[in-house]
Specification:
By secondary structure, the chain is α+β, with helices and mostly antiparallel strands. It has five helices and five strands. It starts with a helix and ends in an 11-residue tail after the last strand.
Length: about 190
């Protein structure tokens, strides 16, 4: 393994170790979990607004626009697609969405948890070759299914984790230690 790959792997392992635990203010970190409900008519707006307020307060304002869009897409997926697991479903109960933020000096982690343990369909790559995509009109592109693709383009990393009691959490990471947010080519 080359020195560049070894450095990249070391950065990823360091980020993983920090994602796995909750930050403390003594470490320069901030932590917040918010519970929302999918049936509320303004769930996505509240999630976006809380994202902006928390990140600004946590001195991570450089990620507010991208994080608001990411949260909007992930919460929208829960509202439109999540079906609670049998053990978590309660007749007449609202579907729970937990929004988690972990802000460290080097990273911002955002997690959106739902009660559906079905794996997300994370896009594996570009839907069309770059040369062809420029020639396609909006009419031939799918009307839905682009949310996780947008999340992957904006975040440094995206993954999911099944929860022990059922359900899952979609996580994304924004890297702060590399200066300004890096844009992935579309």
């Amino acid at each position: 393994m080359g020195a560049r790959n070894a450095e990249r792997v070391a950065r990823e392992l360091d980020a993983f170790a920090h994602w796995f635990v909750g930050p403390a203010s003594s470490d320069g970190g901030r932590f917040l979990t918010i519970t929302l409900f999918a049936e509320s008519p303004n769930t996505a707006r509240v999630a976006r607004d809380m994202t902006a307020v928390f990140l600004k307060d946590a001195d991570a304002a450089e990620f507010v626009d991208d994080a608001r869009l990411v949260v909007s897409e992930l919460v929208g997926n829960v509202v439109n697609h999540a079906v609670p697991d049998r053990g978590l479903a309660r007749p007449g109960a609202a579907r729970r969405i937990d929004l988690t933020f972990k802000v460290w000096p080097k990273w911002v982690f955002i997690g959106v948890a739902d009660e559906d343990s079905s794996p997300p369909l994370l896009p594996l790559g570009d839907a069309f070759p770059p040369g062809l995509a420029g020639e396609l009109t909006e009419a031939v592109l799918p009307d839905s299914g682009r949310g996780l693709f947008i999340v992957q383009r904006l975040a440094s990393s995206v993954w999911w984790r099944p929860d022990e009691q059922g359900g899952k959490t979609i996580w994304c990471r924004f890297d702060r230690d590399l200066g300004a947010p890096e844009r992935k080519p579309c």
